Amino acid sequence: MPEQQQWTIAATEQPPEWFIEAVKQHTPASSGIYAAQLLWQRGIKEHQQLTAFINYKAYQPASPFEFGQEMQLAIARLQQAYNAKEKIAIWGDFDADGITATSVLWDGLGQFFKQNTQLIYYIPNRLKESHGLNNQGIDNLAKQGCKLIVTCDTGSTNIEEIIYAKQLGIDVIVTDHHTLPAERPPVAAIINPRYLPREHQLFHLSGVAVAYKLVEALYQTLPNVAKHPLEDLLDLVAVGLIADLVQLSGDCRYLAQLGIQRLQADFQQPAAARRRPGVGRLLELCQKNGDRPTDISFGLGPRINAVSRIQGDASFCVELLTSRDAKRCNELAEVTELANTRRKSLQKDVQAQVAQKLTQLDLSTTSVIVLEDAQWPAGVLGLVAGQIAQETGRPTILLSTEGAEEAGGAGEAGEQGSRGAGEVGEAGGEITPLSSNSELRIQHPALALARGSARSVNSVDLYQLVKDQAHLLHRFGGHPFAAGLSLLVENIPLFTAAINQQLRQSLGSTTLTPTVQADLTLTVADLGKELFLELKLLEPCGMGNPVPKLLIQNCWFENSWHRNQQDWQGKKVQYIKTEFDIRDDSSRSVFPGIWWGHYKDELPIGRCDCIAELDYNTFKKRYEIRLIAVRPSVNSALTTRNSPLILDLRNQEHSGLRTQDSALIIEDCPTNWDDLRAWLRRCLTTSRSTSGLDNQQQLAIAWSKPNHQPPNQIWLTLVGIAKYLSRTNQLVTRVQLLEKIGISDQTLLVGIKALKNLGFTVKRQDRYLEFTWHPSDNAENFGEAAVARFLAAVREEQFQRQYFAEVPLSTIVAIASDDNYSASGLSQIQT
Question: Which residue stretches of 393-434 are H helix?
Fold first, then answer.
């Protein structure tokens, strides 16, 4: 179970009146106070800064030649290739930043070099190859006659591979934004913003933006060659920038603003007239229209990333993003959507397995979570690691030994980046070979490798943390928030102990806890279109400029309901969402909201505090909040009582506890929260009718851990009983049936429907049930679906009973309580 979150409120400083008035000029429909507060606390404190931040037309972007001599060298080498009609290969990467960077170079360089003859591209296979260059791929390009490789979103530290390419007569231009090598590699040019000062407006460029700057420089150098405007590439740049884990400031923000406009304008065209029909079809499939950054971070980005996670080879995504053939793009978009559906299912499965393994860890003594499993698919480990890191407040490393390669094998697909809230994209990064372990691979060629992904929180520099254990690793790479790594399976225990010890020492007395920060405190009455348009001034949001988190206090929820999500083509995906209305004392009106991945029963009953994001649902055409965190309100407490309301006597002897003078006892394990709430209400009613609230009657949960029979065996038992009763003409009560079979009323009803499909007739006589069987030849086939529904109902019931057997009492208190009792009184726990 996730640890209790720590809530913090961002430090607020009232901006001066002149600044508020300046902000209001951009949001005349509202006061501008909230946007002004956010901008001020995020360092926008000058008039010129403000204007350039909000209005891209007032921003002066940097010249691509700010990269200095390296850009000059790159353009000179491309001009040489242009004049000599050399064959060029684009070497990309398989995440959203790498795919869009490859697409930008494919379309951009394609204005100067004929596609498919002079210009080709290569995307490594995530599941078979590493990020970055590899000798096998270079050999392949050499055989095709390539004389120049232009990398994008990768290549900075591939020293050995660059030397190898040079030996084959191939020059390399590196465009990248990842870790720099200790010395300049032997390349024709290396364009990497990390060579620039940190405060430079180009410093935070992602891979796709660096690729764009190279194309921009070529456009400026050869102005009369290109037939399509440079601006046509900006929509791809926006997709890669927002999907990647980079700070959206400086030119990053400027390019994203321009790109979103291009994306929206193209989507508004009739499908047949779109420049990028593949992007348009993807937006349709995820029910977005391209005008919001979240359309990329929650829509396009995850879908592009899903292809390599599931299939390994994501090369066709470049065609999807760049082809003008609408029919072909529709086909590729549907393949992409199917991959994303599969990704969601795998991610859900792995997350459940990781959660189970977490129950065996003592988080009070764990600083870095390191877990392994032979069945985990490597493609989704980064996403799950990001979720676990957010929930626990601890850096998380998940390793897969699935089909573990030998130490001398082809390499690993290292994972990078995550935004934490849902699946919002990834940051690229290279898996850096470790020279000390290169020798180890040769000496021990039969030892298996585990490979996996790491994610960080709480400002822990994960890259440095992993790098300090380099002597135990085979390969690694990444940045402070995310890393990919591989190591010998036998080294995992040593690695786990060492990295935990290292972080404990660096933290000292600091305790790691999951933290969520609110930016503004407001009421339900403040929510709506005016506030949305005001906060929209901050978009696009990302690293360094996150989506505003809104704290709403002393509120409550109404009309809540949840459902399983139906994915594309009606395919059932195992994730849920809860919809609700939120209300507080500020307004008579309610405001709609959504809580992804949660059931309605997890919403507190009564008054509570919540942290949420304000959004516009383009599908439902409404403004709504997206719930981030919720807890019982600290302001709704009444009287604190001296004894706990709920006693936890599960799996204990409780014969000395009598209902009439001590507590109401629940001995039957419930299957839903409503059953538990009904007992709690009974307890409250008894309290009020006897001694009053100050001398309340307690509720004792005293069920034992269930010992379940296999669902098939339960079905056979039910059929056997039904046949026996039919043969002997005996009657049976519902209670007798339930006790004999060990299922709930609701599941028994499903079972009786299944029996009817097998030829049984069930009649009610007073309190008794009468079974009559009229078997037929096709009864078994006719009832197959009904039996499947019964087995599913049994499995669901068993799952729920298992959950209630193990769920912490603190969770029961939080969910089962209502506003008639104080948060402090209900939180007293006795085990």
Answer: none
DSSP string covering 318-337, please?
A: HHHHH---HHHHHHHHHHHH
| Assigned token pair, 566 | 């139906």
Q: How far apart are CA 440 and CA 425, in angstroms?
A: 34
Q: CA-to-CA distance for 105 and 117, rounded, in angstroms?
A: 15
Question: Which amino acid, 736?
Answer: Q
Q: Where are the beta strands (DSSP E) in 650-741?
A: 663-666, 698-701, 731-733
**Which amino acid is residue 390, in one-letter code?**
Q
CA distance 512 to 498: 18
For residue 209 the two structure tokens come to 């933006």
Give the other-Cβ count within 10 Å of 69's Cβ.
Answer: 9
What tokens were used for 134?
Answer: 């590899």
User: Tokens 């939080």 — which residue?
Assistant: 814
Report the percent of the chain where pLDDT is more than 90: 49
Between strands 482-488 and 515-518, the pairing is unpaired
Rounded Cα gap, residues 292 and 307, in angstroms: 23
Q: Indicate left, alpha or beta for 759 from its phi (over 0: left) and psi (-120 to 50: alpha).
A: left
Sign of the alpha-carbon torsion through 525, 528, 529, 531:
positive
Do 186 and 162 meet the contact criterion of CB atoms below 8 Å apart?
A: yes
336, 356 contact by CB (below 8 A): no
372, 401 in Cβ contact below 8 A? yes
Left (φ > 0), alpha (ψ -120 to 50) or beta: where does 411 sit? left
Distance CA 219, CA 103 (A): 16
C-alpha 204/C-alpha 256 separation (Å) is 13
Backbone region of residue 487 per phi and psi (left: phi > 0; alpha: psi in -120 to 50; beta: other values): beta
Cβ proximity of 516 and 611 under 8 Å: yes
Mean pLDDT for the chain? 83
The answer to whether the beta carbons of residues 304 and 423 sit under 8 Å apart is: no
**CA 447/CA 445 separation, integer angstroms:** 6
CA distance 235 to 256: 8
Provide the edge-to-edge strand list for the sheet that holds 171-175.
119-122, 87-91, 146-151, 171-175, 189-191
Peptide bond into 644 cis (omega under 30): no
Please give the DSSP secondary-structure letter assigned to residue 379.
Answer: G
Close Cβ partners of 133 (under 8 Å, ≥ 6 residues apart): 91, 149, 151, 154, 155, 158, 161, 162, 165, 172
Residues in contact with 28: Cβ distance below 8 Å, sequence separation at least 6, in sequence order? none
Which tokens sit at 760? 């049984």
How many CB atoms are closer than 10 A to CB 708? 16
Q: Which two three-digit tokens encode residue 714?
A: 């339960």
DSSP strand pairing (550-566 vs 520-522)? parallel
Residue whose entry in the numeric block shows the structure tokens 């629940």: 666
Assigned token pair, 716: 């056979």
For residues 363 and 396, the answer to whether their CB atoms sit within 8 Å is no
360-378 tens-digit pLDDT:
888 888 999 999 999 899 8
Supply the pTM of this predicted model: 0.72
Chain-centroid distance of CA 531 in Å reads 26
Structure-block tokens of residue 419: 């935004």
d(CA 292, CA 239): 11
pLDDT one-digit tens code per residue, 704-757: 778 888 889 999 999 999 999 999 988 888 888 888 888 888 888 888 988 888
Band of residue 638 on the pLDDT scale cut at 50, 70, 90: very low
The pLDDT, as a whole number, for residue 640 is 28
CB contact at 8 A, 56 and 115:
no
Portion of the chain with pLDDT greater than 70, in percent: 84
Per DSSP, the three-state class of 552 is strand
Report the amino acid identity of residue 792. A
pLDDT tens per residue, range 496-544: 999 999 998 888 777 788 888 899 999 999 999 999 999 999 999 888 8
